[in-house]
Design brief:
This protein is of the alpha/beta class. The protein has helices at residues 33-50, 53-56, 75-88, 108-117, 131-136, 143-156, 174-186, 204-210, 219-232, 252-258, 291-299, 311-322, 331-338, 344-352, 367-371, 373-381, and strands at 3-11, 13-14, 26-27, 58-67, 90-101, 121-127, 161-167, 191-196, 237-240, 243-245, 263-266, 271-276, 279-286, 307-308, 340-342, 356-359, 362-365, 384-386. Bound molecules: iron/sulfur cluster (SF4).
Amino acid sequence: MKKPLSIYVHFPYCEIKCPFCNLNAWEEKKFDENAYTRAIRDELKALTSEMPELLSHYEVKTVFIGGGTPSLFSARAVGGVLEFLAGEFEISNSAEISLESHPASCGREKMRGFYTAGINRLSIGAQSFSSEKLKSLGREHEARLCFEAFENAQSAGFQNISADIIAGAAGETPQAFEKDIKTAAATGVPHISVYGLEIERGTQFYALAKKGLLKTPSDEDCAQMIEIAAECLSAMERYEISSFAAPDAHCRHNINYWRSGDYIGLGAGAHSHMTVRDAPFGLRWANPRNPREYMEQTARGKTAPRQALDAETGFCDCVMMGLRLADGMDLADAEKQFGVRVDVHALEKLENNGLIRRENGAVKITEKGFVLANSVIVEITGKTKPGE
Ligand code: SF4
């Protein structure tokens, strides 16, 4: 039986770099979509000639076109990439094929084009349905565009739609956030991701915050907003720290990441992770982040250097991803797979503090633990020892 594989394709360009964003996104008003999609094809050709088993031993279960702003690309270019992948790989008939989009490039025609090209799941980076909040996030459009984006996607035929919403914008109160998240829920989309605003190094917001020019809500208010999100979206399942979904609308592509499944990433800055015979603890690699450097690399027929993980790194990655899921992970199984041991006292302490619970062989972070998820994960992975 063939093994499941996910494919991520990164489209790195954005019309404007949002001041909070630390993703591999490049502000580019004009870009050559033909040259970029050619580079993706060249990369895949080079990769599969080095790893021919990718084509013979795997079946593609999910494809995710992320960015950047993939919706800036034409439906023709997106369709061309999907056709190329389908020509190379065995793609499951029920594959989830997602595309990330920005409300400003979700016009009616575009949405129809993407749907016809084979995209069956749309993730709309709305961030908010309030014009005032969008402005404070540095978004240069009115909330009206967000509403239109969802209407256009739905009328094009998309049912599997996700909305991204940020919590904790400058000046935002828990009451204002509640209104925003309720508006998101009222769109009727079956999947909503809620992210607390992080002031990340290298962003415009980081520079402003350092000068004392950005006043974001207190940690308590931000924690309250996440609680409000969980309450307002209680009709959905919170299946991951930031993700809420109706039944059957879970993002299968992301679940594969969180379960440490195999995936290849194509495009500038894209990461890959495979578990293969020669690298039982995982093999990973990442492309150059700069699109120009990436295209130069692929034009030379080169791929990024691959790195075999040691047991401890592989285990930490696996725990970091697996514990994000509400279903948790089988820690004992991972200990066996990577040949390491977690300190039982650390687990007991976390359990006694109500941050994790053990259930049917799985270790799960509790609702209380979700707020402190990073510390919980560090507590577990930091006390890992080689197995006996
Ligand atoms: S549109 Fe999305 S990817 Fe692009 S800069 Fe803004 S948040 Fe980042």
